[in-house]
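Protein 1 of 2
SEQ + STRUCT:
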Amino acid sequence: MEVFKAMGEFEHEQVLFTREPAANYYGIIAIHDTTLGPALGGTRFWNYESEEQALTDVLRLAMGMTYKAAVSGLNLGGGKSVIIGDPGTPRREMIFRAHGRAVETLGGRYITAEDVGTSVEDMDYVHMETEYVVGIAGRSGDPSPVTAYGTYRGMKACALEVYGDDSLKGKAVAVQGVGHVGYYLCENLAAEGAKLIVTDIHQGRVDRAVDDFGAEAVNPDAIYSVDADVFAPCALGAIVNSKTIPQLRVKIIAGAANNQLETQHDAKAVQERGILYAPDYVINAGGLINVYSELADWTTDRSKRKAGEIYQTLLEVFELAREEKLTTADAADRIAERRIEKVGQLHRSRIS
């Protein structure tokens, strides 16, 4: 892969490659845009098939964080990091201390947090080497409950748009992935009386959702074709694509996973099927809001209230999409880009 060409496609500012063989650490940090503030984004620990796949993932994720922060009204830029390796590795201190040293070299341009394959405990190891980390024990902690709450509120906004009523009572929701965020999302949905259909590659997680919420379990490949009102992707990305879209039997896609669309064309394909898509970086912004609370010194209640505003943000996205005949994905991008442009102009006027 041509790295500079890949960076230039979406105008990333910086990519840092770091290796520490003694710690079995191989990491990539991508900074997409710092117009609004320092780049903030979690660290993903994943067993990538290739270095090219890891780079593609981190570039997409970093860009998504820029747009997520912008559309959420936060004073942050977008960045992300990935560690190439087995996320089931039991001895993790040296890996994450090495990662903390890599983060430290960026001098505050990038702030990390937990993500897929990492934990609060891992961030504590990172914190041994750098102050540029959020979501550590004793502070905002696990962002999953706030992410799930924001996703739940966003799903209600989708219901209002499609059904004219935001109640999810009696609605069938197919949840793909019932790990941390997916589990808390199920908890919110069950409390309102939604019917849950769940799947996960880890059987223990499925069993827990069945036991705790009375959910119906299906095989991973079957989740796309279940008869439901809402499909909630809460696992990895690129699962809304040319193969899965024809299988969907829902009116709404609203979940917490990042980069749910495999390509931008898929947003149009979903729309043509009469399915409302809640742009992932809008509906799942609760996690970013949660860790931002450390930087802004917000209380837990204030973070949750801010995550609840995802409801109104999505309604604005849907309105713009209708008015300008856009896909909801393009409408969300436009709102984010306008904020970045306006703030960028303010910065320029100060120094002119």
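Protein 2 of 2
SEQ + STRUCT:
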Amino acid sequence: MKSNPHFYILQIFAFLGFIIYPQNGLAENKLGSLKLQFPTDIKVSLFAKNVSRARHMTFDDQGILFLSQAKEGKVVALPDKDKNGEADQIISILNDRDIPHGLAFAQLEDGYYLYIAEETQVVRLKRIQKPFTYEKPEIIVNGIPGGGHFTRTIKIKNNMLYLSVGSSCNVCIEKNKLRAAISRFNLNGSGGEIFAEGLRNSVGIEFSPYTGELWGVNNGRDRLGDDHPEEELNIIKQGKHYGWPYCYESRFFDKDFGKSFDCSKTEPPAYTFTAHMAPLGLAFYQKGSLPERYNHSVFIAFHGSWNRSVPAGYKVVRLQLDAKGNIISHEDFITGWLKKSGAPDGRPVDIEQSPEGDLYLSDDYLGAVYKISGN
């Protein structure tokens, strides 16, 4: 693995990213002690705090960041009206929902919509007045199985909604075809079909701006030791099977299943990483506010291991791409959320590029959003 030659060590103080919500003493204390390591030519600052269980993000057509707080049952907006790099306030969009997670916007003929993937359904809200007035949620996809891996991720491309649903178990043969798969729907929820299967838990999915193909990071099964199966980045193609639960890594048969399965017919990963690091979010970056040397990258947020004798993850990794979007190599980009004791000091979740070209990173352990820009 490559290493960056120069790093800043950042002390994030509690007064950064001031929010109008009441202070949270625990989060304040943790944010005050956090030290991150990253290259000297970028800057990391605290954009928002007191957003407990911060998960997935997206930007609307006004450049405003929307954030899901899945286990809090909330979706909020985080405007930065004065453009000082700190959210001005936390504006509630939805409350008391069933694990809202994936977020996406779409402009349709009859209006502008916010789509939200909850544990057992996908809803959409029509905006009736800028910036934050929306109608009540309309259910467009229901009957999504609950339990097990309970977060749902959505992306929209070419007027189609792509939905990622994780497995119900560590390793098993699923009865419901929506499980461990990515399905696809029309934007009104009709025409549902399975797009790709054998994906145990692809929380992070994103379309490549180079090829238009769907890329996704996948969390492998547990209880095969520290080093297997390696975490995967897949190029997800229609009609393909990516191995789980029968095969892992480059088509190794999972011996927990005493059944015949032709692993040679499954799609091997496009790239692999250390096992159990739990990749959750990824963002393509062609160019933006970062220095030019970061052009043509994919940034991946690793949530961190929970079942490894030596903890791993808790960081952001950069994949270097060529001008056609092919992977060249990878390197650590931001680290420091894992203490020497092995305890977490934060857990990265999702990473998104803003219309201005900065990167934003959520942290569900600290309830925070970071802004990453050029120094």
